[in-house]
Amino acid sequence: MLPHDTYMLRCLQLARNGRGAVAPNPMVGAVLVHGDRIIGEGWHRRFGGVHAEVECLESVREEDKPLIAEATLYVSLEPCAHFGKTPPCADLVIRHAIPRVVVGCRDPFPLVAGKGIEKLRAAGVDVTVGILEGECRALNSAFFTFHTEKRPFITLKWAQSADGQVAGLHGRRAAISGALSARLTHRLRATHAGILVGTNTALFDDPELSTRHWPGAQPLRIVLDRRRRLPVGLRLFSGDLPTLVLNEGKNERHHGLEYVHLDGFGSPGFAERIVQTLHARGLQSLLVEGGAQLLQCFIDSGLWDETLVLTNTALRVGSGIPAPQFSGGVLLHSRVLGTDRADTYRKAEGSLGRMR
């Protein structure tokens, strides 16, 4: 393995420590190398906190500080060049007279988007770009999708029986997945900005849509309620967590809920309209948990990036509501969770999914 790759892998390893804590900012790791020795490391720990480059330089021991001006800085994402919640990291690099910077990938955020690299090069810094670029982009897939595709990164999730049913007849609730799968689902929720369910799922399952089985951030709860017919006693309407209700009525706040007008329920392009509405609100990632009709709507529109299918291999429901049908997925991994099998798919390259 080339030295550049080795140190960039370390940047990625550090960056992952910020998962679930830095959004909507990207996860970033930084490593400062002198000769063949790492003299500083850092990562972006929390939204609004110092960036990876700052923490990396602050971690350098006093006796190693004279080596900074002879070192190489590795960073998984292009150093920023604008004032946000913190000063520009490109200016910090220049101020410390770091002669070489190796960047994993460019930042798609319009206020950066190559400007950090340009600023460094204009100051005489030797900049190398594109080391493990695919891995660096994949780490922040939601961030990149939001800024390049102009939509949230979309994950679909459902649980099905061994005979491919997601519920009993007439939407009757069926306990399909087990406790380990529930923890996996809650971990998935904690890594998404929003979680969406349809009217029937809210009505028949009465889900809380929380992350109570996994430590982490609580996503925005989003429910479709076209004519606002869902009863106010549902757990979604408890008011204890932020909840968005997409409906055909007017925009208003009522009983701690935010109602947002949305046109075209059930018509072609409905999934696109949902996604456009959520992108306009700044949601970088969306978890769609059902039901089958809503999931199929996203699948048919090509609007998904990953899919988690939980199959209880020991349960047969018989007649019921069939699971969604989808294609164009590449199996990333499969794991066994008790009697459940958890299959995660990534959308194949070239499949539909870009906003029209």
Automatic annotation (TrEMBL):
Cofactor binding, per record: Binds 1 zinc ion.
Keywords recorded for this protein, A-Z: Hydrolase, Metal-binding, Multifunctional enzyme, NADP, Oxidoreductase, Riboflavin biosynthesis, Zinc
PROSITE patterns to which the protein is assigned, alphabetical: CYT_DCMP_DEAMINASES_2 (PS51747)
CDD domains, per the entry: Riboflavin_deaminase-reductase (cd01284)
Cofactor: Zn(2+)
Pfam families: dCMP_cyt_deam_1 (PF00383), RibD_C (PF01872)
Keyword flag NADP: yes
Pathway in which this enzyme or protein is active: Cofactor biosynthesis; riboflavin biosynthesis; 5-amino-6-(D-ribitylamino)uracil from GTP: step 3/4; Cofactor biosynthesis; riboflavin biosynthesis; 5-amino-6-(D-ribitylamino)uracil from GTP: step 2/4
EC number in record: 3.5.4.26, 1.1.1.193
All residue ranges annotated as the CMP/dCMP-type deaminase domain in the record: 2-128
InterPro entries recorded: CMP_dCMP_dom, Cytidine_deaminase-like, DHFR-like_dom_sf, Eubact_RibD, RibDG_C, Riboflavin_Biosynth_HTPR
Reactions the enzyme catalyzes: 5-amino-6-(5-phospho-D-ribitylamino)uracil + NADP(+) = 5-amino-6-(5-phospho-D-ribosylamino)uracil + NADPH + H(+); 2,5-diamino-6-hydroxy-4-(5-phosphoribosylamino)-pyrimidine + H2O + H(+) = 5-amino-6-(5-phospho-D-ribosylamino)uracil + NH4(+)
Family note: In the N-terminal section; belongs to the cytidine and deoxycytidylate deaminase family. In the C-terminal section; belongs to the HTP reductase family.
Function: Converts 2,5-diamino-6-(ribosylamino)-4(3h)-pyrimidinone 5'-phosphate into 5-amino-6-(ribosylamino)-2,4(1h,3h)-pyrimidinedione 5'-phosphate.
UniProt-listed NCBIfam families: eubact_ribD
UniProt name for this protein: Riboflavin biosynthesis protein RibD
Gene from which this protein is expressed: ribD
